[in-house]
């Protein structure tokens, strides 16, 4: 897909759609679309309701900014490393939907328990084996690329889902199927135990949010 004003508007509308459905709160989430050898990604810490087409950033698959004045999403490595690994993926949505986040907090994967998962996701939703603390962006991207396999979704442990598709419409549909699957999984396994984030990582995340988030280049 090529960069265009229409594509940029579509990404912004997708962000607002996610927000309206509480799949994201604030700016905790990010969207990208592959454009040739590059990716068009959302910026860091820009309110979706105020986001303009020029706020989006083009990066190459090594993480370098090609075009744009904003700081790209701090989780750009999640996007670029998936694109490097999977040539069939054309769009990625990382959101924080409630049920999927709940499952990620248990560190468990979601097996293929409903038909939509087989058809759209290509099977279950694996969860990364380890929690990657906030701010360790490259490590998070590497863990994501290692976990995704051949399917269209995964869970970042103690974090949230990453949903992929051949285009943005499919990636948004994957978000809905993952959330539905997570809700059903939790209904079937009510004794799933949480795996809390260690205090040292909680403190690090709080410090980063207060003093670094949205300013990292």
Brief characterization of the structure:
40% of the residues lie in helices and 14% in strands. The chain contains seven helices and seven strands.
Describe it:
The protein is α+β, with helices and mostly antiparallel strands. The chain has one domain: L-fuculose-1-phosphate Aldolase (3-Layer(aba) Sandwich), CATH 3.40.225. It is built from seven helices and seven strands.
What is the CATH-assigned architecture? 3-Layer(aba) Sandwich
CATH topology tier name: L-fuculose-1-phosphate Aldolase
Coarse structural class: alpha+beta
Q: Give me the number of helical elements.
A: 7
- At the fourth level of CATH, the homologous superfamily is Class II aldolase/adducin N-terminal domain
Helix-strand topology string: HEEEEHEHHHEEHH
**What's the mean pLDDT score?**
94
The largest pleated sheet is described as: 7 strands, antiparallel
Radius of gyration of CA atoms, rounded to a whole number: 16 Å
Strand content: 5-15%
Topology (elements, then pairings):
Elements lengths: L4 H16 L9 E6 L2 E4 L15 E4 L4 E3 L8 H10 L5 E4 L3 H7 L10 H7 L15 H12 L4 E4 L3 E6 L2 H21 L10 H13 L6
Antiparallel strand pairs: 1-2, 1-5, 2-3, 3-4, 5-7, 6-7
Helix pairs in contact: 2-5, 3-6, 4-6
């Amino acid at each position: 897909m090529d960069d265009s004003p229409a594509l940029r508007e579509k990404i912004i509308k997708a962000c607002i759609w996610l927000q309206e459905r509480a799949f994201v709160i604030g700016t905790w989430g990010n969207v990208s679309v592959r454009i040739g050898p590059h990716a068009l990604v959302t910026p860091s810490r820009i309110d979706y309701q105020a986001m303009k087409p020029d706020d989006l950033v083009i990066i190459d698959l090594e993480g370098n900014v090609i075009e744009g004045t904003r700081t790209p999403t701090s989780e750009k490595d999640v996007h670029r490393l998936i694109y490097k690994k999977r040539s069939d993926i054309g769009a990625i949505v990382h959101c924080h939907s409630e049920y999927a986040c709940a499952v990620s907090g248990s560190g468990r994967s979601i097996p293929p328990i409903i038909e939509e998962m087989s058809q759209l996701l290509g099977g279950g939703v694996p969860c990364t084996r380890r929690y990657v603390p906030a701010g360790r962006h490259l490590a998070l991207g590497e863990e994501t690329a290692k976990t995704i396999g051949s399917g269209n979704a995964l869970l970042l442990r103690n974090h949230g889902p990453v949903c992929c598709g051949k285009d943005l419409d499919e990636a948004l549909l994957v978000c809905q199927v993952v959330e539905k699957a997570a809700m059903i999984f939790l209904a079937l396994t009510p004794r799933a135990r949480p795996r809390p984030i260690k205090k040292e990582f909680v403190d690090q995340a709080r410090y980063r949010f207060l003093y670094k988030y949205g300013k990292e280049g």
